[in-house]
Amino acid sequence: MAQSPGFTIRAATEDDVPRLMALIQDLAVYEKLTHEVAATEASLQGSLFGEAPAAEALLAFAGEEPAGFAVYFHTYSTFLARRGMYLHDLYVSPEYRRRGLGTRLLRRVAAIAVERGCGRFEWVALDWNTDAHRFYEDLGAEMLPEWRTFRVVGDSLRRLAEGGRGEGLRKE
Questions:
Q1: Whole-angstrom distance, CA of residue 41 vs CA of residue 16
Q2: Which of 89, 98, 153, 172 has its CA 20 to 30 A from that of 34?
Q3: Rounded-to-integer distance, Cα 19 and Cα 170, Å
Q4: Tell me: the pLDDT tens digits for 24-59?
Q5: Angle of CA points 132, 2, 8, to nearest 5°
């Protein structure tokens, strides 16, 4: 367990699923993406603590109160021929911001990446979130302007997997 003034950071457990779900909802409100949240406590429990976990999570507490979280997982770089670490979400509740907790969460995930021999540690931030951009750059992160994230979801994902064409899928 990592300690910082007034905060405790530890690996999330199955008992933390309701706390994590509440923080995920808070993050979605902050990012104006509540319409995209399909997660439930059951699906979160399965994806983090089931037979084949897809990701890991850290929880931060101010005393007994959940104050933030980080969700991360491994990636792979063919150029490095090594695993990498991808930070999917980092969130600190508004009342605990600007007190070093975000930095401590980010550093803990970076430390896990180093412990595991990862060659990269990457994440994305929404283009409008200039506070996050400054925060990450102040910690030494480099924004990669030449890269763009692509995503296929729902019916488009199904059509792509089936080899068909559809909205957004070009003819080969």
A1: 10
A2: 98
A3: 42
A4: 999 999 999 999 999 999 999 999 999 999 999 999
A5: 75
121 three-class SS: strand
Q: How far apart are CA 148 and CA 15, in angstroms?
A: 36
pLDDT at 7 over 90: yes
Structure tokens, 38: 């399909």
The answer to whether 100 touches 60, Cβ cutoff 8 Å, is: no
- 39: exposed, middle or buried (Cβ count in 10 Å: 0-12, 13-18, 19+): middle
In a domain? residue 161:
no
Which residues, 6+ apart, have CB-to-CB distance to 102 below 8 Å? 68, 90, 92, 135
Contact of 160 with 152, CB cutoff 8 Å = yes
Q: Encoding tokens for residue 129?
A: 């979130």
20 located within any domain? yes
Number of domains observed in the structure of the chain? 1
Question: Catalytic: 136?
Answer: yes
Write down the catalytic residue from 72, 86, 96, 136: 136
The tens digit of pLDDT for each residue in 96-150 reads: 999 999 999 999 999 999 999 999 999 988 888 888 888 888 888 898 888 877 8
d(CA 68, CA 56): 14
